[in-house]
Amino acid sequence: MNWIKKSSVESVNSTVKKEWEQIKIRGSSIDWASTGARLVLPLFFSLWIIFLALKSPVFLTSQNIFNVTRQIAVMGILSLGQLLCIITGNIDLTVGAFLALFGVILGGLSLSLGAPLAILIAIFMALAWGLLNGFLVTRGVGISVIVTLSMFFIARGLALLYTLGKPVILFPIPYAFIGQDELGPVPWSFITFVAIALIVHFLLQYTPTGRHLYAIGGNRATAKVCGIAVNRITLGVYILSALLSALGSIVLIGRIESAHPNAGTFMELDTIATVLIGGASISGGRGGVFLTVIGIFMLGLINNGLNLMGVSSYYQQVLKGIIILIAVLVDQMLGQAKNS
C-alpha cells in the first residue's frame, strides 16, 4: 500500500512539474507563431491609418501626434490595469466607472477639506475599492465578469447620487500640470503613462510576481498546487487596477479642470479592445505591455483620424465592437489550432 501511495504521489508531482514548466515557458518566452498571427490585426490597422493619413492632411503632423499622446494617456493607464487582470484570466469592468466615482469624490472632498487631505482619503478609497473587487472575484472561479459588472453599476450610481448628475467644478487642483503641461513638446500625461508602462513591464517580465500572474492565467489549479497564492495575487491585481483608474482620473481632472459623474463612459470597452489587440488572451496566461501599447496607439490614432474626418461617434462605437469581436475570434481560432 505504501508503494502504491508513493507511486501516486510521484506521478502527481511529475505531472505538476511538467505543467509548471509549460506555464513558465508561456510566461517568459515568446510564441512566435501565435505572435505573428496576432500581428495581423495591428497590420490591418496600420493600413487603415495610412488611409486616414491620405484622407486628412493634418493627421500625421507633429502637433496632431502629440495631441494623440495626450488623448490616449488616460486610456493607456487604465489599459495597463486591465492587462494585469486579463493575464490572470479575469477582467475588470469597473475601470471607467471608478474613474468617474474617484474623480467626483476627490473633487467634492477638495472643496470641503482641501486638496492634500482629499487626495489622501481618495487614495484610501481606491485601495478599498480594489480590495473589495478582488475579494468578491476570489469567491469563485470565472465570476469576474458578473462581479465587476455589478460593481460597475454601483460605481456609476454612486457617482450620480453624489453629484446629482452635475459636474464638480471650481475645486483646487494642484496636480493640473499632469493633464495640461508639457516637458518640451511631450505632454506630462503621456510621460506618466510611459512611466507606468515601464513599471508594469518590469513587473511582468523580471519579477516572480509577474511569472505568477501568467501561471494563474495559464492554469489556475496547477498554480495553486505549485504553491502560488492565487487569491492574494488576484487581490493585488485588482488593487493595482483601482489605483491605476484613480491615477487616470487625476490626469483627466488635471486636463479638463473638473470632475464629471459620466467620465470614462465606454472606457471599459476601450481598455479591453487595446489589450486584446495587443495579443492578450481573454482566457488568461498571455499578454504583454509592448503589444498592449501598440494596441493603445492603434485605437487612439483611429479615433483621432475618424474625428478629423467628421465621422460620428456612434460609428466609432460600432468599430470598437468589431475590433473586440475580431480579436476574440482570432484568439479562439489560435487556441483551437494550438490544442489540435
Q: Could you explain how this protein is built, in words?
A:
With 340 residues, this protein is mainly alpha-helical. The protein has one domain. 78% of the residues lie in helices and 1% in strands. It contains 15 helices and two strands. It has a two-stranded antiparallel sheet. Strand 1 and strand 2 form a beta hairpin. It is globular. The N terminus is likely disordered.
Number of domains: 1
The description of the largest β-sheet is:
2 strands, antiparallel
Number of helices: 15
- Could you spell the SSE succession in H and E letters? HHHHHHHHEEHHHHHHH
Instruction: Report the end-to-end length measured between terminal Cα atoms.
Output: 38 Å
Put the structure in a nutshell.
With 340 residues, the protein is mostly helical. It has helices spanning 2-28, 32-38, 40-55, 62-87, 95-113, 115-137, 144-163, 176-180, 188-206, 208-218, 220-225, 230-256, 267-277, 289-308, 313-339; strands at residues 182-183, 186-187.
Give the topology, please.
Elements: H1 2-28, H2 32-38, H3 40-55, H4 62-87, H5 95-113, H6 115-137, H7 144-163, H8 176-180, E1 182-183, E2 186-187, H9 188-206, H10 208-218, H11 220-225, H12 230-256, H13 267-277, H14 289-308, H15 313-339
Antiparallel strand pairs: 1-2
Helix pairs in contact: 1-10, 3-14, 4-9, 4-12, 4-13, 4-14, 5-6, 5-7, 5-12, 6-12, 9-10, 13-14, 13-15
Keywords:
mainly alpha; about 350 residues; two-stranded antiparallel sheet
